[in-house]
Write a structure and sequence with these properties.
With 424 residues, the chain is of the alpha/beta class. Helix content is 36%, strand content 24%. It comes from Sorangium cellulosum.
């Protein structure tokens, strides 16, 4: 008779802050001043409850007064822009020409790409981001290196080869057939890797730099493999004008993506600042999501996304840092910028709404809401241990400090699927 197997569960004691998944009536948050989080086999949450001495048979890691909370989700970030954060070189199209495209051309150098990929993953984890949705460059080898770095870091990552076959520098331009062959190879190697932590995303940069044929082929590959689609839409008026010059067969910007089939599955459209009501309606009908990147929008002067338009139609919204136009990898800054963005439009977001937009709301927008986003039994244990000032007490103070006084709040540890991934 074999000996009984030791209990593989692990328990963490701390204060706890989490969205309430599926809460009726809008975003809601749960705060426990003294909680026990139990992680079971497979890195899933086995139990979350108020702490009771002796309730757990094994050892308990006491982390109080630190707060346990879900890992943050960055729904829109650019890996090859890691080193150009803060490059104030103009509005969107000028910034791309002067800062972004020259930097992204450097990723043809494998040594450089590997170095920045390691920096990229370190920046994410140090900021408390445990899940990212990332653009790579148009270079297949650099994209492969990004996936290797995500795997080594233990991050949950959705990433894609950036597709561009027109209206871009020669160093970044990849013809349709070559780009799609590379994308298919990357799908085979990386989609579902890391035990499912990694996914490949179809990633047209945006409509002006993509031919219709490239977008149609990309949409077909997404449909064949059930891949998430990520791209940009309506970030600036000049971008919208360029889109319709290149694609005069479409009635508006969203119609470009709609007609080529890119809105038929899991689609995440970044920005959505300058959308007409018909475009918002169509986004809602296709169940696409918006990645709201307010810090980037302020930095480039692109405008202000009206969250009320999405809310009125039930369009899922996730927050994105949009590094490198975004000035920080820290999603707490994105939450704070979203608050400011709304105020500029005469609206006001609650701290709970902002917190949910970077956790459960983002997970829902990405189709991962049943897996991550909150600290609920059965979900995978992607969570942070965060140090707050000792005087912070209760849900309201914790949320206010997390979002608006983040300099006083430090990420001490990060876990993905129950495995410690930070500190390094």
């Amino acid at each position: 008779m074999s000996a009984p197997r030791a209990d593989a569960r692990r328990a963490y004691r701390g204060r706890l802050l989490t969205p309430i998944a599926g809460a009726a009536g809008g975003p809601a948050v749960r705060f426990l001043d003294d909680a026990l989080l139990v992680v079971g086999e497979g890195g899933r949450i086995a139990d979350v409850a108020p702490f009771t001495p002796g309730a757990f048979a094994g050892p308990v890691l006491n982390l109080r007064p630190a707060v346990l909370m879900p890992g943050l989700i960055d729904a829109h970030v650019h890996f090859p822009q890691t080193r150009i954060v803060g490059s104030a070189s103009g509005a969107l199209l000028e910034w791309l020409e002067r800062s972004v495209f020259p930097e992204e051309a450097r990723f043809r150098d494998g040594g450089y790409a590997a170095l920045v990929a390691a920096e990229f993953t370190r920046c994410l984890l140090a900021s408390g981001t445990t899940t990212c949705v990332a653009f790579s460059s148009s270079n297949a080898a650099a994209t492969d290196l990004l996936f290797h770095a995500l795997l080594r870091a233990g991050l949950r990552g959705i990433a894609g080869l950036t597709l561009m076959d027109q209206n871009c520098p020669e160093a970044l331009c990849v013809p349709r057939d070559e780009a799609m062959a590379a994308a298919r190879d990357l799908v085979q190697r990386w989609h579902g890797a890391g035990g499912g932590l990694l996914e490949f995303a179809i990633t047209p940069r945006f409509a002006p730099t993509c031919s219709r044929g490239l977008m149609e082929a990309a949409a077909q590959l997404a449909a064949d493999h059930g891949l998430l689609v990520q791209t940009h839409v309506a970030e600036s008026p000049a971008e919208g004008e360029a889109t319709l010059r290149e694609h005069p067969w479409a009635r508006d910007y969203v119609d470009v993506y709609d007609r080529v089939g890119l809105l038929s599955g899991r689609a995440v459209l970044a920005h959505g600042i300058h959308l007409a009501p018909r475009e918002w309606d169509r986004i809602a009908e296709t169940r696409a999501a918006i990645a709201h990147c307010p810090d980037s929008n302020f930095f480039l002067g692109s405008g202000r996304m009206r969250l009320s338009e999405a809310r009125a139609r039930g369009v899922p919204v996730a927050l994105g840092s949009d590094v490198g136009a975004g000035r920080s990898f820290d999603m707490r800054r994105s939450m704070s910028s979203a608050f400011d963005n709304a105020l500029c439009l005469g609206d006001r977001l609650t701290p709970a709404e902002l917190f949910v937009a970077a956790t459960q709301g983002a997970a829902d927008a990405l189709g991962l809401g049943h897996v991550i986003g909150s600290l609920d039994p059965g979900k995978e244990a992607d969570f942070l241990v965060v140090r707050f000032p000792e005087h912070v007490a209760g849900e309201e103070e914790a949320l206010n400090h997390l979002i608006f006084a983040s300099d006083a709040v430090a990420v001490q540890r990060a876990f993905v699927r129950g495995k410690a991934v930070y500190p390094f």
